[in-house]
Design goal:
The protein is built from three helices and 15 strands. Strands 1, 2, 3, 4, 10 and 11 form a six-stranded antiparallel sheet that branches. A five-stranded antiparallel sheet has the order 8-9-7-13-14, with helices on one face. By secondary structure, it is of the alpha+beta class.
Length: 212
């Protein structure tokens, strides 16, 4: 289940509040479906609406202490596992879903259109976290899929089918790409680097915002 900050949950419970922050944590399962222990990643997220009705979505990828690379059969090695890429799946071509030029964080970001947004960042070792990865939208949040990856198992980590989803803009989510598709999108984005080889409350708020 999603873990909600108590103060944020109280604010959402107050239907008269128009400007809100919300935050929580979601678990991304590894390529073998593991959702507990050091092989599963967590994503800390927040959604903040400002006085201009613009929503800022922020994600931080956390690599747990003890995460190690796995062999193809799932047996552990002694090599620490890193993570250096993250994506969220929603259709950025929908009007207002993604405000052009608002993507920040990491060393490199890419707008993959109907497949969502991608970030590449400095490798995060076990026990550490990425910096904040953010973008802005005119649309309030609903649930969508996220993926994180590196070159070796237990990568890729994902919301689907065994992990948990994260907030993304408005009811414009798309199916989570298959791991192979996700990897290809990531590699394509990296090639562009120069010289580099309870969420129902969210949904009700979104429906209310769209009808107002």
């Amino acid at each position: 289940m999603l873990i909600f900050a108590a103060a944020s949950a109280c604010m959402l419970a107050n239907s008269s509040a128009q400007i809100f922050p919300e935050s929580g944590t979601s678990v991304l399962a590894d390529s073998f479906g593991t959702v507990t222990g050091p092989e599963a990643l967590t994503v800390s997220w927040s959604v903040v609406e400002n006085a201009s009705d613009i929503y800022t979505y922020t994600y931080t990828v956390n690599n747990p202490v003890g995460d190690v690379a796995l062999n193809n059969d799932g047996t552990p090695t002694i090599r620490p596992e890193i993570v250096d890429a993250f994506s969220v799946a929603f259709d950025t071509t929908v009007s207002g879903a993604y405000l052009t030029g608002s993507q920040t964080g990491g060393q490199f970001g890419a707008n993959n259109g109907t497949a969502g947004l991608f970030w590449y960042f400095t490798a995060v070792n076990p026990g550490n976290s990425s910096g904040p990865l953010s973008f802005e939208s005119d649309l309030p949040p609903t649930l969508g899929n996220a993926n994180a990856l590196n070159q070796n198992p237990p990568s890729p980590w994902s919301s689907s089918p065994d992990g948990q989803q994260v907030p993304v803009p408005g009811n414009v989510t798309v199916p989570a790409p298959e791991p192979t598709t996700t990897t290809l999108l990531a590699l394509t984005a990296l090639l562009l680097l120069p010289f580099r080889s309870t969420i129902f409350q969210f949904i009700r708020k979104g429906e209310k915002a769209r009808s107002s």
